[in-house]
Specification:
The chain is mainly alpha-helical. The protein starts with a helix and ends with a helix. The protein is rod-shaped and about 75 Å long.
Length: 116
């Protein structure tokens, strides 16, 4: 059964449907989408009933996830791929470490705010 018209307004339905049949088609599309999601995404969109809204929410979640990964990559590259300068005096090394920890904490707070 062709169901694209349920999620794409530019696609005309193959024929006129009764309200009952249309609702059945809407539930089918929702089930198709939800049954193909991993557990993480499934939990986040389970309460959404409208298929179009589910797809929009999934797009937004994917964008946020990509942004989080990008930020984590930047943290890793900046702080963990560069060796620490062991020639520094102890106090300077401690200050450098505190600066790194502070910066990582700020980045993680930004990521946490993106999640909400």
């Amino acid at each position: 059964m062709k169901l694209l018209d349920i999620i794409d307004d530019s696609v005309k339905p193959p024929k006129e449907f009764s309200a009952e049949t249309r609702n059945k088609r809407i539930r089918q599309v929702r089930d198709i989408i939800i049954n193909r999601l991993d557990e993480n995404y499934h939990r986040k969109i389970m309460a959404i009933k409208d298929s179009k809204q589910i797809l929009n929410s999934l797009k937004e979640l994917r964008i946020l996830d990509a942004e989080k990964l990008g930020a984590l990559d930047k943290i890793r590259e900046k702080y963990f791929d560069e060796p620490l300068d062991v020639e520094n005096k102890s106090l300077e090394l401690i200050r450098e470490c505190y600066g790194i920890i502070d910066s990582i904490t700020r980045q993680l707070n930004i990521l946490e705010n993106c999640k909400n």
